[in-house]
Target: ATP-dependent 6-phosphofructokinase
Amino acid sequence: MKRIGVLTSGGDAPGMNAAIRAVTRCAIYKGLEVIGIRRGFEGLLEGDVIPLTSRSVGGIIHRGGTVLRTARSERFKKPEGQVEALDRLRELDLDGLILIGGEGTFKGAWALHQRGIPVVGIPCTIDNDIEGTDMTIGFDTAVNTALDAVRKLRDTASSHDRLFIIEVMGRRCGFLAAQVALASGAEYVLLPEMPFDLDHLCKKLHYARRQGKTHSLIIVAEGVMGAQDLAAKLKDTAGYEARVTVLGHIQRGGSPTAFDATLASRMGAHAVKALLEGESGIMIGSLCGQMVTHPLPVAWEEKKPLSDEVLSLMEMLSI
Ligand code: F6P
Model:
């Protein structure tokens, strides 16, 4: 193996740059040439590439976003797009590819693996919804970004004796919402994994008031419903007036935490090692602090479960 490519794809996440840096420097350290592919699979189809050197990935470990930029490619999902990508990879003379992203990225990586390209995936998404790894790169930073905002909202909620509804990201999963709710001491959390129960929520709010609580925080994952819709439902059903904040894409930006920069560096190094050892069609994971590998389909065939401990703890601590 002489020359490898690296790309970031799907939603960006803090720590992507730290992973690009680690892949590039570890590969160069081991005598490989590294090519950066811009804008994920879309850039691959267009042959939009740039040589990466130890110096060109300097000064990026602390930066949010991705210097390679990212995209969601509809073209690449089709078999014709994948055949075209193979032609580009041959023209670029790449012996292997490291792909940094979430489930969609891994499905694309698997398609290339099945067509004979050696690939390794690095899990990087603020959603943390990839089985086979305790944490994805970016999740810890997003939790802390959202937590910082929720703590500020708590200040004003408590000053004014108000009910706040805060919408966090998570179209299909509630890892971010659950963790933020637990860490912020919210009264209630709504997750895509759990049926929405308006009656239970109203009872909980009534109970909180009777217990002498003067303000309350509800965290809702965007996949359940919009915070405005929830506020309207609470008003219509129980007369509650709620203030609403939608945190949105702010959760995807910012410098990676120490945890994420470290995880990205370790996973980047492990991905290069795996590729050099002849592995392909795999993802890197971190389980109990150890770097591990799994076949890529683990990422979408097995649903990562939310921790029952976190959920029951929330119930206990929000009385
Ligand atoms: O990065 C993951 C995620 O943030 C989801 O939680 C969210 O639903 C989605 O991406 C939104 O992404 P975009 O705005 O890029 O479509």
In short: Residues 182 and 313 are 8 Å apart (CA to CA).
